[in-house]
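Allow me, if you will, to draw on your knowledge of protein folds for a short while. A protein sequence and the structure tokens that stand for its backbone fold form the material at issue. I would ask you to consider whether the tokens describe a fold that such a sequence might reasonably adopt. Thank you for your consideration; the sequence and its tokens are set out here:
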Amino acid sequence: MSTSQTPAAPFTELVNLASRLLGAGVVATNEDTFADAENLLVAKAAEFRAHTFGHKGQIMDGWESKRRRGVSAEQPHPTDEDHDWAVVRLGVAGRIHGVIVDTAHFTGNYPETGSVQAASIPGHPSVEELDDAEWTDLVPRTALQGDTAHEFEVSDPTRYTHVRLNIWPDGGVARLRVHGEVLPDPRDLDGLSFDLAAQEYGGVAEAASDRYFSSPHNLNSPGRASVMGEGWETRRRRDKANDWVQIALAGGGEVLAAEVDTTHFVANAPGWADLVGYDASAGGDPSADPSSDPDGWFEILPRTRLQPDTRHRLRLDVGRPVTHVRINVYPDGGLARLRLTGRLTEAGRAALALRWFNALPVAEAVQALTEAGLAGAEATTLAAARPLAAPADVTAAVTALQPADGPDGTETSRRAAAIWRLLGV
């Protein structure tokens, strides 16, 4: 539990792209004799139990490679470049804002230095294809300490699908966290209704009144809570106010239904809850308190009675786009999950597509444009014009493409259709 309302590093308030709940996995490593590399992604904090030995030595809750040796009696030590590595497939592709390399409980066996690299590899690549990928340094080779959670901010704007943790020369790392902005391929969401609040599509619990017992990020986590601790729970209120969580949706959308889930909260479920929404696509600041911006926030669900240990499924008739949702609970208590089923609006899909397109590696951006219908040279020129901050920037960049159109407007029509197909602009 924590009384702090401020995270240790701001990027930790973003989704952990390397969460196994989202589908992340360790897909390759060169060495994990002492302890499996898969332990890097375990959700709970690393543990240590002294004097618990297996056939390979002290059992460590993390990834640990064997001790490296040189090539001969005359050269018994490893070279300065000898190192071990593990490749992680992110659960969802996205822009990485920060990495945590945690050496918890590794005190006499931690690596001397480490680095983190990333690559974008579409589809479902084999181990051999991982070797051929272009890897980019997110965290350069850096000195590490034992029993320490090393927090590294990342400024690279590219969308990545895989990361590689390198350690020199050998040793152990307990956990790896990769926090960032989920950027789904908008083409995968076309025509679908889905949970607009879900982490796997880009929903983020960006603010909360209280996180004393557990994190508000649990509210939009994948799957169902298996115990009360996997939900969001506040401390007991002793005033006349209420608690709340605010979620930025995956994109501007039409919310059709809500599920307010109090599963496992038997003696501490809220008595009531309501939902209010905000449409930030037309401007405005959703971080403002609803009481100070009554024109910006609007009712989605009126205050509704809740039952303990119950999944409340509620149809909604909002009638306007929503980009942010705040759930208010009265007066306090806990929720297991909040689901907001809906579909992207035309403007919401276009905004999501533009964020995705701007973050693609150049080769992938060119491929997406050519698949949509642009010529190769046109796609290369448009990809080089990024970032394109708004639909007007896209229109201007497309208009400037060469060769210029003739009187019949054929080229303009073809280009416009391609951009509409891909970006909705």
